[in-house]
Specification:
By secondary structure, this protein is of the alpha/beta class. It has two domains: 168 residues, NAD(P)-binding Rossmann-like Domain (Rossmann fold, 3-Layer(aba) Sandwich), CATH 3.40.50.720; 211 residues, Dihydrodipicolinate Reductase, domain 2, CATH 3.30.360.10. It contains 13 helices and 15 strands. A nine-stranded mixed β-sheet has the order 14-13-12-11-7-10-9-8-15, covered by helices on one side. Helix 7 runs antiparallel to helix 12, helix 8 packs across helix 10 and helix 10 crosses helix 12. The longest helix is centred in the last third of the chain and has 20 residues. The radius of gyration is 21 Å and the shape is globular.
Length: 447
């Protein structure tokens, strides 16, 4: 890497960290920023994980105005590396290197930043290794697999002073950002309740049976931080989300992350004081799905505020009129908001304000991307350069992610519990037994 460019990026990052911790964005002036555009300003990237999510980054990476270069495409399955290379080949006029093992990319000093879109169990260990290797990280949701990893990913960011953007892209929605300013300025009065919801019609999944790994899959490296076990049929194809807790975080980590983040943002709260969950597997009861598929969770805060989660993974009745979103109640009115915009109502139910987005990310379809993901990635680039603040810095992302971990723990132990609103730790001993997880020896992140 050019030493001048590395020096610039290092100084810019330090500045951006300062911006990110401030309540306002003191962006670099356009005239001063234009003086440093050029090869020294280029950000070299790698992507780890080439399943359903990587295509959301193509637009931001391919746009020459963003002055980034994709050095590596990394995945543990050869066919996914080849497919991603072909798709990027339609948008860029050079060929990134294809790599199976992310450790080789960590060792490459020319790589400035890594987009991490792996299965859940890799997220925090991978991000921590990347930061330790001097890389900035765009970290897809969930940012952690459990409560302890939630603490670790924030602690590593603070120690290594790297930009870590969590991939909850609605934080980059112009409409949602504007709405949050209105809510915090009293547009619907005192906010006291938010209902985050998600509905999908996921079908029956196979009962896992022992099988040979798919051709071209490095099964050992896929498992990574998780304890080693034999491959089971159909684990690879998305269903790792539902086959036990070694890899996935159920629907809470998979999708609730997004809407709960919006609810917490609107409520302007951090840790709850009490968590209560009703959950169960109610559909296709004899199939291979090992998690709950239906959950109602309640997070109670001080000052009589509450966030509720209403999730149904395999019963597609949209009782809120749409597949996902957040309903926010205030003393003077209410708001329904999703990635497509919002509608604000007064106490009589009359529509008083709305704003619609051209976003293509409003539904529940798997993978893909759209303008929110592109804007979120571009913001990440700007933060690395010191030009702007991250829209979803990891310390905020982790606060929202904690709600998903509380709900999963409550579901697994079958009881409610109280939470320390200062530290985020749970007062219940049974619950704290699930605060972390068992790692394959040598893989646990050590600060």
């Amino acid at each position: 890497m050019d030493s001048n460019r590395r020096g610039f990026l290092k100084k810019a990052t330090a500045g951006a960290v300062g911006i990110g911790l401030s309540s306002s964005v003191n962006a670099m002036s356009a005239s001063s920023y234009s003086n440093i555009i050029g090869s020294n300003d280029r950000i070299n990237l790698a992507i780890q994980g080439l399943g359903r999510r990587y295509s959301a980054y193509i637009g931001a990476i391919a746009n020459k105005k963003n002055n980034v270069r994709l050095l590596y495409l990394c995945d543990v399955l050869k066919s996914q590396r080849d497919k991603a290379a072909a798709n990027f080949g339609k948008a860029i006029n050079y060929k990134p290197q294809l790599e199976n093992d992310i450790h080789k990319i960590f060792d490459d000093k020319d790589v400035d930043a890594i987009f991490m879109a792996t299965p859940d169990h890799w997220h925090t260990p991978g991000a921590c290794m990347a930061m330790k290797a001097g890389k900035h990280v765009y970290l897809e949701k969930p940012c952690s697999h459990n409560g302890r990893e939630n603490e670790l990913v924030v602690a590593f960011q603070q120690k290594y002073n790297k930009m870590v953007q969590m991939g909850n892209q609605q934080r980059s929605s112009v409409e949602t950002t504007s709405l949050m300013k209105d809510i915090h300025n009293g547009a619907i009065g005192e906010v006291y309740k938010a209902i985050a919801f998600y509905t999908n019609g996921r079908g029956e999944v196979p009962v896992p049976t022992k099988a040979a790994p798919p051709e071209g899959l490095d099964w050992d490296l896929f498992q990574g931080p998780a304890p080693r076990k034999d491959y089971m049929h159909n684990t690879w194809n998305y269903n790792w989300h539902w086959y036990g807790w070694d890899y996935g975080t159920a629907e809470m980590g998979n999708n609730a992350t997004h809407e709960l983040d919006i609810a917490r943002w609107a409520m302007d709260v951090e840790y709850p004081e009490h968590v209560d969950v009703i959950s169960g597997k109610h559909h296709f009861v004899n199939d291979g799905w090992e998690m709950y598929d239906t959950m109602e969770a309640t997070f109670r805060y001080s000052n009589n505020r509450v966030i509720q989660w209403d999730g149904s993974s395999r019963s597609n009745y949209n009782k809120y009129g749409k597949g996902r979103g957040t309903l926010i109640y205030g003393s003077l009115g209410s708001v329904m908001v999703d990635r497509g915009g919002y509608e604000m109502f007064d106490l009589s139910g009359k529509l008083i304000k709305d704003s619609k987005s051209a976003s293509q990310e409003g539904g529940v379809a798997l993978g893909g991307g759209g303008n929110l993901s592109t804007r979120h990635a571009v913001n990440f680039f700007g933060a690395i350069r010191g030009k702007e603040a991250l829209t979803s810095p990891i310390e905020q992302g982790a606060l929202s992610q904690s709600l998903t971990h509380y709900a999963n723990i409550s579901s697994r132990i079958g009881k409610s519990f109280d939470v320390d609103q200062t530290t985020g730790r749970i007062f219940d001993r049974d619950a704290m037994k699930l605060w972390s997880r068992t790692y394959e020896p040598g893989w646990e992140p050590i600060l």
